[in-house]
From TrEMBL:
Keywords: Hydrolase, Metal-binding, Zinc. InterPro entries: GlcNAc_PI_deacetylase-related, LmbE-like_dom_sf, Mycothiol_biosynthesis_MshB. Residues 1-24 are annotated as: Disordered. This is N-acetyl-1-D-myo-inositol-2-amino-2-deoxy-alpha-D-glucopyranoside deacetylase. It comes from Enemella evansiae.
Amino acid sequence: MAPETATTEDTATTEDTATTERPEPHRLLLVHAHPDDEVTTTGVTMARAVADGAHVTLVTCTLGEEGEIVVDDLKHLGADRDGGLGEYRIGELNAALGALGVTDSLRLGHDGKYRDSGMATDDQGRVVPVDLVHDEAFWRADLREAATDLVPVIRDRRPEVLITYDDYGNYGHPDHIQAHRVAMYAAQLAAIPAYRPDLGEAWQVRRILWTTMSESWMREGLRQMRAAGDTESWGGMDPEGPMPPMVRPDDQIALTVSAPELVDRKLDAFRAHRTQISFDSPFFQMAETYPQAWANEWFVHAGGEALPAGATDIFAGLRDE
């Protein structure tokens, strides 16, 4: 008996399905140290990725238990008093991610496994670890163990792009430095088939980006704030003077993500972290005097496939689109 031949209707249906089938969404993984860090340097990037249909996963390494509380009626949550700040900040984090449209969020290992290490400053104003670090502090965590906690996330979510901090943690916070170490090590381990196959099939992240800030943007923002009469925000920093370590010369920046239409989402996400960011903070002051201050975010290419010239998107060049 001769095989059946597809009818015209069957063929049309098959072709229609093929031409209308949606490509698999892009996938982004971000590794941050504490709740609220995700907004400062990647809020617009996350919101844009979600708006473009990408799957965005955030891993937060600690609950931020040592964060300075700026709201008087919540100061009792501090580590030096009743405690409970970490649990409270999970709620703030969820609200912030709601503003950005992100629905996939988890803590490294499990909630509270790694504690906020806190920070201090030396006599030159540089951020350093505190003298007495909590036994469960992230800064003291075994690097292999912490990286292995991230491996199954990488293998399960299969991100094309991984975003974290540079090797100085942007400004020297010990938890940011540790988050960098963990993310970079985990990306290597996750790609090795022989390493812990029980944690999932090996996955190679295709591009790694580090967060940074643009020197020209920072100087211009400070100029506008000073011209508006604000001489104190950002520690009174001179627009023409030395810049802090999280700021890089523009020629070192590989990618600028710009989304002015999403700035309000970023500011709403900032507001969700009410224990940490007051409404008269430099974040909001700069937004008022320099309206598009938070519309741009910048990245250094740290590994994997390079960005094509003129790229404006974190996924640029990863697929034939």
